[in-house]
Amino acid sequence: MPARPSNRPSNRRSGHFAPAVLCLSGALVAYAAAAYAQSDDTRTRTAPETVVSASRLPTDFRKVGSAVTVLDQQEIEERQNLFSADLLRDIPGLSVSRQGTLGTNTQVRVRGAEANHVLVLVDGMEVNDPANGNEFNFGNLLGLGISRIEVLRGPQGGLYGADAVAGVISIETPLGKPGLFFEGFTEMGSWATVVGGARVSGGTKKLRFSLFGARARTAGTNISRPTALPFANEADDSTNTTLHGRVQADVAEWLQLNFAGGYTRARVQFDGDQPFPNNDGVNNDADRETFREAIQGIATAKLSFLEDRWQTKFTAGFLTTDNENYSNGVFQTSQKGDRLKLGAQTAYTFTTPDFAKAEHTVILALEHEIQRFDQKDLAFGGASDQNRERNQTGYVGEYRLSLWDRLFLSGVVRFDQQDEFRNQVTWRGTAAYLLRQTRTKFHTSIGRGFKNPTFTEQYGFFPGTFTGNPALTTETSVGWDAGIEQRLFGKSLVVDVTFFQSWLENEIQSTGTTVRNLAGTSTRNGVEVAFTVRPIENLTIRGAYTYLIAEEPNGTEEVRRPRHSGSLNFNYRFLNKRANVNLGIQFNGKQRDTWFPPAGSTSTTLGGFVLVNVAASYKLTENLEIFGRVQNLLNQRYEEIYSFQSPRIGAFAGIKIKFGAPM
């Protein structure tokens, strides 16, 4: 079993003024930009044109009432993050907890909810792992080969059913353009890190494809705290092999076929609480490792009629995972998960120009999902062996309404019929209003979500450390948000402020060796602030800040949810855009955590920290580019999980080659 995410306070004192400094810096940047920005600046967009996750159909961004943030391919490449989780640190409302060094188990929480309350999609396929607490481990997902990350915040149960309690993270890989293109890259750096990969893409106007592969290997850093013991302080290494591809075929004017698939195999060493030198609940050096393998795929057929006013879609997707755990080279346990999802959807759009210049869209959908969980062990004589299956069928109806091309409303209702838990009705409503005279957008949403107990929570068994609880009931949540987006000086400055609140019933919480439903209501509320500013040509500054209060029913602060967090990112292109420099500053405030000594659980506080990352690139020719980055430039010592050390300063450099022939 992977090491229990225990927690321990940082040894260093966090700066009490970091949140104020970050906010003040952002305010000064915005003010300076406003003073120098040109009102007719339309060089670069400051918001995505289309959002794919906020409705059953892709939607114009200005029509979306939910809070959503998009990172496009250019932003992703500018930051050069090896792992995708580090990209998410810059998005408001999100918090990241990595279990130590590169590649280890990484959780992402949205607005104070638990990590398995977030639905993750890769090219449209749900990839939450039924064998890993039904959450997605971002430690397995490289930041390489990704073209877009879209984060939709707030309960989305009406659209997606279970798992989307707090939001959706939708990840896309690129699709080729007509012609034939090749891209290869390699990178080396600290901790004997070696990364390499390549992409082949291309096609014709009617058939496009992209194939990508990468491998990353690092000797890693020591996850456990330094010790005087002569055999301790060993580094924990990891490897990751990633393959994915997409194909799109326009078979006819009315028929489009899409295929996407991916494969990941990762090996990760980690430490954990050991009987020697003392069983104190603190992470100690150990020879443990996990092998993780995941394969996913999705096929979609889209049919369009009546000048695209009537669209029908059929989908079939699958996910299979295998997690094997070893201690001192001896097999301990394995957890396997499978997900099969079939869906059909039809949507019709029509207008009533004589009534408020209205546009109506009606969407009906049917989905059926099968999940399987298989756990086996050799170390414990088969005591934890499990073979479980769940079936769920969802019926969805969505209605979207546009009035006067300035007021946009949506409503969705979903009924989920389940074979193991009580049937659920979820819903969501949104509204967005454009005040064009002042370039202001008002947006709000409200919704309900639910989360069934995971297979592990119900049936998992690890002698001496965990026993499942089959009597658990479903978690349910209702939440709302409301915000204002303001554009100033043309497109040079965009500021968005969003308030949010949610109530969670029957929260499932660990008690040390098992789990239970808490009586009462857990609450999450706060505010998100985000801005994008372009004071001069080729300079883009983005900032985010989140204030969060997440509490259990008794008022206790939830673990690993910092009250204050934020980021600033500066990107500058120069020398005719051949050179690029990116500076990222991320602040994570102090947060509560829990550790488990033999006597029970103990609360502690992890210190806040500031991470500074610098990345640069230069195109020697149109086909050849060199790049490099330094992460944790200030060499901060910090822990995101109690007694699990994060990497210190590291430097990396590489080269990228591109060539191809457009059609």
Characterize this entry briefly.
It contains 5 helices and 39 strands. It is mainly beta. A hairpin with a 3-residue loop joins β23 and β24.
pLDDT below 50 for ≥5 consecutive residues: which ranges? Answer: 1-45
Query: What's the helical proportion of residues?
Result: under 10%
How much strand content do the residues show?
over 45%
Distinct helical segment count: 5
Distance between the termini: 51 Å
Shape annotation: globular
Q: Assign the structural class, choosing from mainly alpha, mainly beta, alpha/beta, alpha+beta, or little secondary structure.
A: mainly beta
Describe the sheet with the most strands: 22 strands, antiparallel, barrel
- Total number of β-strand segments? 39
Q: Report the average pLDDT across residues.
A: 89
Specify Rg, calculated over alpha carbons: 24 Å
Overview features:
globular; 663 residues; disordered N terminus; 22-stranded antiparallel barrel; 5-stranded mixed β-sheet; mainly beta
Provide an overview of this structure:
With 663 residues, this protein is mostly beta strands. The protein contains five helices and 39 strands. The strands form eight sheets. It has a 22-stranded antiparallel beta barrel. The chain has a five-stranded mixed beta sheet with strand order 3-8-9-6-7. Strands 1-2 form a two-stranded antiparallel ribbon.
Write the layout of secondary structure elements.
Blueprint lengths: L17 H19 L13 E2 L7 E2 L6 E6 H7 L4 H5 L5 E5 L7 E5 L7 E5 L2 E2 L21 E6 L3 H4 L6 E6 L6 E11 L3 E11 L3 E15 L14 E17 L2 E18 L11 E22 L4 E18 L2 E23 L5 E20 L8 E18 L3 E12 L5 E12 L4 E12 L3 H5 L1 E2 L3 E2 L7 E14 L4 E13 L2 E3 L4 E3 L3 E13 L5 E13 L12 E11 L4 E10 L2 E5 L6 E5 L2 E11 L4 E8 L7 E3 L2 E2 L4 E13 L1
Parallel strand pairs: 6-9
Antiparallel strand pairs: 1-2, 3-8, 4-5, 6-7, 8-9, 10-11, 10-39, 11-12, 12-13, 13-14, 14-15, 15-16, 16-17, 17-18, 18-19, 19-20, 20-21, 21-22, 22-25, 23-24, 25-26, 26-29, 27-28, 29-30, 30-31, 31-32, 32-35, 33-34, 35-36, 36-39, 37-38
